[in-house]
Each structure stands twice: as C-alpha cells, then as structure tokens.
Amino acid sequence: MMNSNGKFEEYLLKSRKDLKTVNAYGTDVRLFLEYIKIPLEVIDYIHIEKYKSYLFNNGYKISSINRKMVALNVFMKYNGKNIEINQEKFQLQSFQDNVIESEELFKIIEQAKIRNDYRAKALLYTMYYTGMRISETLQLTVFNIEQDTILIKGKGRKYRNVFIPNKLKAIWKEYMNFRINKGDKLFTGERGSITRETSNKIFKKYARLSGIDVKKAHNHNLRHLYCRKMISMNVDISTLADLVGHSDINITRKYLIKSKKELLDIINSLD
Q1: pLDDT confidence band for 243 (50 / 70 / 90)
Q2: Mean pLDDT score, 123-137
C-alpha cells in the first residue's frame, strides 16, 4: 500500500494549501478509497472511470465530480502514479434551479398561519412584497410600520427608498399584536432582534411542514421571486433595478433568468 491519506494531507499542508482545501481533498480521497477497495498500486484509468460513473449514477453534479477528480489527480501524482484523470465537460445552461414559486411560498406561509406564527408570516411577506435583502429587512423598526416608503441602507452602504404596499402594512399591524417587545427592531424574539440565521431557520421549518424542498427556502430566493413577479407584471427592467437597489442593470438581468419549471412549462405547452 502506498502513502496513507493522512500523509497526503500533511503534504497538502506543507504545500501551503488552505485548511478547507486540505479537508475537501482528504474527504474526496477517502470516499474513493472506500469505494474502490483495492491497493493503490493496481489502480488505473478504468477504475477512475468506473468511479466517475458511480458518482454520476448516484446523483452527483458534474461540478462535484470534477472537483473530486482534481483531488484524485493530486493524490495519484503524490503517490507516483501517472494516470490521466480527465474532468467531464458540461455546457453551462442559463436557467435557475431551486427557485421558489409564489404558490409554494403561499403554502409555506399557510403552515405559519395554522400555527399562529404571525412573526413568520410577516417576515416572509415582507421580503416577498418588497424584494428587500434579509440584511435590509432586519433594519426595519416598529416606527416604520405606517410609512409608505422607508429609507434603507443597502449593499455597499448605499441608501434607497423601499416602497411598502398597503397589504404589507396590514400584515405588520396584525403582527404587532403578537410581537415580542424586545427593542425597537420590527422582527424580534426573546433575546432581541432576530438574525438572518433565525430567519432562514423559520423559512426552512415551514417549508418542511408544507412539503416544499428546503433547498428553496432561503431568504434571497424571495428577492428573486419579487423580481420575477415584477417582470411578469410588465415592470421594465430599469425601474426594477431602482426598486431593488441595483446600480448595474446587468445584475438585475441575472435575477430574471427563467427557472427550470418555467422552461419545462414552455416545453410541455408545445402542440
């Protein structure tokens, strides 16, 4: 048997690889050795290709497989084995995956309503109706709930006005009857203002309860949803960029790439 995985990781550290890379390479090599179950001395190109097929058939993305091949390439060279390990090529396709649809969000909010979680309801609707980032949403205070526009500090320390629809103000008013009074921030818990991590946990909790894929339940997905809904309402992209605080309109364009579901719906509608 050739050099152990432990010695390989020591070699990586001495080669000035960062700890995250060392751990990732170490894990990738360990999983390969557990799969192959033969001495390193007899491993060849065919074994590597079989392992790639195994990964692909078990649902690994091409990008993940290629990363593992990079790790194995370094490992084999470290052990003095000259095996040609090729990465798989793939075409970058312009569609968004794991995006949330309005109907899915409403199912998630319905689970919060069933459990009388008015904070969750108000939090999710706030991001949906305004397109604010979670960092901006958590800036809101109890003094903002009657305002039509709110001055918010966005990315890059740039300030902008966020427009508040009447239906959201009504939701905030309802929430205020149940809000935990721990400071001036609008969204609070027993320890004071909540964090973005708490917000994500709330989102994922109700996604699970509603049977929605938790990969879709992250704060920024609601900003994407807001942008897509605005475009579907014929809001021009320049106006949308102003609404969401993008100084570069090309950033806004990235939010408007169709989802996998939307593309499938188009394909399935063909006569």
Answers
A1: very high
A2: 96
Residues 147 and 34 in one domain: no
Average pLDDT of the chain is 89
Residue 94 pLDDT class (50, 70, 90 cuts): low
Does this model's pTM top 0.70? My answer is no
What is each CA distance from 79 to 38, 64, 67, 75, in whole angstroms?
Answer: 15, 23, 19, 6
Q: Which two tokens stand for residue 76?
A: 């084999």
What's the CA gap between 249 and 148, in Å, rounded? 25
Residue 1 has a pLDDT of 42
CA distance linking residue 185 with residue 196, whole number of Å: 13
Q: Are 206 and 111 in contact (CB under 8 A)?
A: yes
Tokens representing 128 are 């949906």
Strand-pair partners of 153: 159
- CB-CB neighbours of 218 under 10 Å: 18
In a domain, 95, yes or no: no
**180 and 113 in a common domain:** yes
- Write the CATH number for 12: 1.10.150
Residue-wise burial string across 235-257, b where 16 or more C-beta atoms lie within 10 A, e elsewhere: eebeebbebbbbeeeeebeebee
Q: Tell whether the model's pLDDT for residue 259 goes beyond 80.
A: no
How does strand 149-153 pair with strand 159-163?
Answer: antiparallel
Distance CA 31, CA 115 (A): 43
